[in-house]
Amino acid sequence: MKTDLPNLMRQRQLDAVVINGPDGMSAANPNYNYLIAPAHDISGHVIVKADGSTYLLHRTMERDEAAQSGLKLINYDSYNRKQIIADRNGDRLAAEVELWRRIFADLKIDGRVGFYGNEDQGKAYAFLNALAREEVCEVVTEFENDALLEARATKDAWEAEQIVKACRATEQVMADTRAWLQGHRVTNETLLTSDGQPLTIGDAKRFLRMRCFAFGLDESNTIFAIGRDAGVPHSRGNENDPIMLGKTIIFDIFPRLNGYYADITRTWCLGYAPDYVQKAYDHVMQVHASTEQKFSTKRYCWEMQENACALFEAFGHKTQRQDLAATSGYLHGLGHGFGLAVHESPVMSLRGMRPDEKFQIGTIICNEPGLYYPDDPRGGWGVRIEDDYWCNFDGTFQRLTEFDRALVVPM
Predict the structure, then answer these.
(1) pTM
(2) Which residue ranges form the domains of the chain, and what is each CATH number?
């Protein structure tokens, strides 16, 4: 949580952190968005000192938006960067280093400074090396489990509320999409458009994107895949594929609302489900329920994945535990944290991959077991069911998603 950041900085002996934020509300820069929320669409930088005081460096034209962040404000333009560049004979890198020397001097920052946020790798490497070379500060970088990621791994009540809002809007899009599918006539087990052409995956994606827009959801790359594509976990689906009865459709939708993601998956068979799909669906739901029952702050996250693998293996399915390169059976981790990014800590992966991760108060995580058989001679198929959970302040896990899990959609 944000309140943990000063302590995380002390653990790393950081005198300050700088979060680069040129992308405003872009999903590509969650660390920056984390600290400026509830403000958004501001190009700037956030600076946090070891005492917890937090500053937003912004441009003049964004001063009103910057004020919505509630942070202490520094007008970037007051440093007259144009003059600094002229004084450095047009050397923009030297000018940038001098600019930050002045900013750090004004904020009385020296010593160890951690750098976060998103920037082109070459540009960031050149800048950070120049800062260190000119002894502006001691540059600190972290490869993984950095201070910001660790803070974001747990969510406070306000963040959980934002994710619930995203879930409710997403569930309405799912309900509308299901009703829209049900409204189409069927000939020879194929859904048809009003002009008699086969309804396609592309048609469904265009519809759901319009509904996302109507609810203020920022959507991209939704998985809506049928048949064999449903048997490949991250296949987005072929837009030209016709939508047919009896084939599995994996609908995995993960849009943002006010910067925070929902992440929900349902599997549908329109009209009816083949017996072998129904059986696999029942196996998936047994693993899903077992995971939900075992959630606890006393457990390591890998215990959930080991339990899922053991159950699936007992049902006769190959798992990731037996073969990481398998292309059928249970092929992925059981779930992951999310918030301002669609993948955050913690992760329910195999034992040994993240051995020390435990669930904590404030953890938000998805539970998404699945089975995949893309090359089944009866026709490729896949099943996945995903719901979202928050470990609230009494240590119990609350399911945030409410949408029904019915496999068969009556037509």
Answers:
(1) 0.90
(2) 2-151 (3.40.350.10), 153-409 (3.90.230.10)
